[in-house]
Structure formats: C-alpha cells, structure tokens
Amino acid sequence: MSSLRSKTVKGVASLGVGKGVGRIISFANTLILARILSPEDYGLMALAMVVCGFITFFNEIGLGSAIIQKEHISEEQLNGAFSISIVISLLLYVLTYYFSPVVGEFYQNPQVGEMLQWLALSFVFGAVAMVSNALITKNMLFKELAGVELISIVLQVIVTLIFALQGHKAWSLVYGHIFSQFVRASLAIYFAKWRPTEFGRFKEALALTKFGLTVTYSRLTWYAYSKSATFIIGKVSGEKQLGIFSMASTLAGLPTAHITSLVGQVTSSAFAKLQSNLTELNKVLFGFTAGIAMLTAPILAGMAVTANELIPTLLGDQWHEVIFLVQVMAVTGFAKALSPLLTQALTYTGKANITAKYTTLCSVVVPSAVLIGVIWQGINGVAIMLLGTYFILTGVLLVLCKKHIALNIKQYLQQLITPVVSSLIMAVGVLVVRLCLLPYLDNALLLLLEVLFGMVIYFLWLIYVQTKGLRQLKSVLKDLGLGANKLNRWPFNRVSD
Description:
- The chain has 497 residues and is an all-alpha fold.
- It is 84% helix and 0% strand.
- The longest helix has 53 residues, at 352-404.
C-alpha cells in the first residue's frame, strides 16, 4: 500500500505543478479582465454557465466515474460507454440550441440564450473525450493530465484576452471557454491513446449505467445547491449584483478549487483501489485531509485579513463591494475544501447512494439559505447564511462517513488542529502589522508586507511550536522521493519520521 500512497502523492505533485502554473496564469488574466470587462459581463456569463453546467452532467450520465471505479473493464464496455455518451451529447446539443431562447426570456435578457447556444458545443467535445479522460485518471497518468490542464488553461487565457481587447465583452468569456474545451478534449484523446473500435455495443455498457446514474444524480444535486446562489441572485438582484458575488466567489474559491480539485482527480483512483481495505483508505484520507488543510487554511485566513488591501490593489476601487464577501467566503471555503474528499471516499468505495442522499439534503438546505439571505441582506446576507450552512452540512457528512466507511471523527478532526491554530496565529500577527502600518503605507505596499509577515509567522510557528505539520510535510516529501540527506537538514532535522 505504501507504493500506492507514494504514487498518489507524486500524482498530486505532478498535477499540482501543471494546475498551479495554469491557475496563476488564469488568475493574472482575471485581474486584467476585471479592468476591461464589467460586473454585468461576468454576470451574463455566470447565468449562461449555470444552465450549461447543469446540462453537462447529463452528457455522460456518470459513465466516466463508473469506468474509474470498476476494477476490470472490457473493450466492449468502453466502446458502449463511448457510443452512449456521443448519442446523449448530440441530443442535448440540439435540445439546448432550440430551447435556449426560453432561458433568455426567463432572465429577461436574450443575450443569455444566445451565449448558451454557443456554449452547448462543449457537450459534444466532452462526450468525444469522456472515455479518454476516465482512462487517464484510472491509469494514474497524472503527468499527462497535468499537461492537458496547463495547455488548455493557457490557450483559454490567450483567446479570452484577445477577444476582450477587441471589445467583445461577455462574449470573450464564451469564446475562450469553448476553445479550451475543444483543446482539452483533443489532448485527452491524444494522451490516453484509446480509440473506439466500433460504434454501438450499448448493451455491454448497461452494467456501468447503474453506478453512473447514481453518481450523476449526486452531481446534479451538488450542482443545484452549489449554483443556487447564482440562479437566485441573478433572478432576484440582477446581473450587476450577481457579477459582484461571482467575482468574490471566484477569488475566495481560488485556493480551495485548485487544491481540492487536483487532489480529487488523483485520489478517486486510489480510493477505488482501496475500497476493500477501509483501514488503509482512512489513512490515505487523513493524510490528504491534513495536506489540504495545511495549504488552504493559511491562504484563506490570509485572504480574510488582507481583503481591505487585496481587493482595491488587484481589482480596482469599482469592486469595493467584493471585500466583505471575500472575507466571509474565505472562512466558508475551509469547509468547502474538505467536503469533496469525503464524498469521493464514499463514492469510490461503492457508497454512491450515500453520497446521493447527502447531496439531496444539501440541494434543499443550501438554496433555502440563499433565498433567506438574499431577502434579508442581499448578497451580503447570502454569504453570511452560507457560512453557517456549510459547516453544519460538513458535520452531517462526517457522521455519514463514520457509519459507512468507518471514519474515526476524532482522528479526522485532529488532522485539522495544527493548520487551523497556525493559521489563526498568523491572522492575528497580520492584523497587528496592519494596525501598526496602516496610517503610513498605501494599499499595495501594505499588502506586500502583510503577506510577507504572514508567511514568516506561519512557517516559524510550524517549525518551532506545532511541529506536527512539519512532520507531515517531511513524510510527503519522502513519498515524493526526496533523498534522506536533504530531509535531515534544517528545518526537517527538528522532527523525526
């Protein structure tokens, strides 16, 4: 099992490099676009994407996840899965194209419907590469997956920026998305080196659809509640308020979305391989939970305490309403960063029905919280309501994991003590720096000093006070193949293996 852990850790590292560079480029592009495009442009794209994203889940009806989860799969089943996915995608494209004007009428903006007609092309691209994407993950080809991620993001950034500079406004986001989906599909097919040998074989793939449909249901309910804020705010408060909320959500979600998604892509295959050994699976789960917390907690805490300088410096004064939202969403983001790993552990150990029950609960509770929040205090009220809601739901998820995969909740929470305490100490230190230097420095310089002081405080605390985090980092580096001579140097010589 140690070789599987090592391979999984290396996969996270490889994928992390590719995604990390891509995210940095994408983030820089977002900052540039924020000065070219308006909140209304982002709001229009968010409205179109919430519908497009929902329909996308019907594209493969969970067949990709079924391919990953199944221990042995035949060529006939792969051909059948490919055939089913193609037929469904073409049907969805046609239906979406002809019914998209209804979406425009619902939002009282025909441009939303027109954008959706173009975005529907991504259904076909996704279906063509569905089997290839699943095989890349199943076979743990993480370097190839990193290449797909990086190249598609870079090209999306280039295309989006070119069209934005030419004055295409919200449409620049549409064109960039479509092109990236085409590139992503083409690269996945190239790296997977799998080609369908015949069309049809629908019967052979039916065995995969039972698991796949359960996964699809979970994803649909997850999407319904995760995008409920976009849907409700867009309808109740309009495109501008939605654009502001979407920008705040994008910024606050950057660290969690990147880290959680890359870990999730890697651990799905590891959980599937360990589904008959829950003791070892929980060890892997604890390790990655600690790793996610060590990375996300300080970043989210840092965003919360530096938001007053961060937002004007990065986006400009026209986005000042984002500040409070980012502060609240950064705290919420910690719960949202941990939940996906737990649901993956349930799903890929064959407990997809439990995940479905949990996401069903969420699909009722979260939209209700959003609706109460937007009526109470607008988009600020939504952020506050979601803060409490997500932490309560995470507690429910832990109880389900205890029952169905023998998760020890006490041991799980122990993984969070070091990163949470260290991040709180760091946040207090940054606030002290801010109070002392605020009268003397402009936003940009103050932000730089806050970040530097925060990093120093966090790492010194881990090295000299709460050394458990340093021990966990040493273990990860050992799995990555770092030599013993390097791991015996400072600061790792302060802790034992």
